[in-house]
Specification:
Length: 169
Amino acid sequence: MIPETTRAHVVCGPPACGKTTYARRLADRLGAVLLDSDEVAERLVRAGLALAGLDPNDRDSPAYKAAYRDAVYETLFDLARSNLPRVPVVVAGPFTSEGSNPDWPDQLKERLGTASTIHFVWCPSDKRRERILARGESRDLPKLATWDAYVASCRDERPVFPHVFVETS
């Protein structure tokens, strides 16, 4: 159960596992601001990738990760920190590499100025593929084109720190 006094919630997990849907429901229940990585940064990322002559649908290459990953996440946390004094905040994004860092909850607390409840949303890869096909987003085309390699590159394990586990299949 989630303590109602928790003001910061981070929803993480592999792509297409249901993070956004879960985060919306959580934000609605808590009366929280929802900051979703795709919604917050999508237009800027697409414009920047196009300007650099790169595929605007790319979200998995080393070039994308070097240029945008940390900037997108830091923007989410900047927005969360500025809203937390007034309202609860739900931040949604993959945060895949963070799941293997046992110190991440403490780093979040320092970054946000308050403890966070971390929610890990998960479902099997075959269900994620179905959801990616159903949502029909152009940013998913590179994933689908190399599905087996893409799935092999995804961190699928539960975080190494305490979290709320949400299975969505």
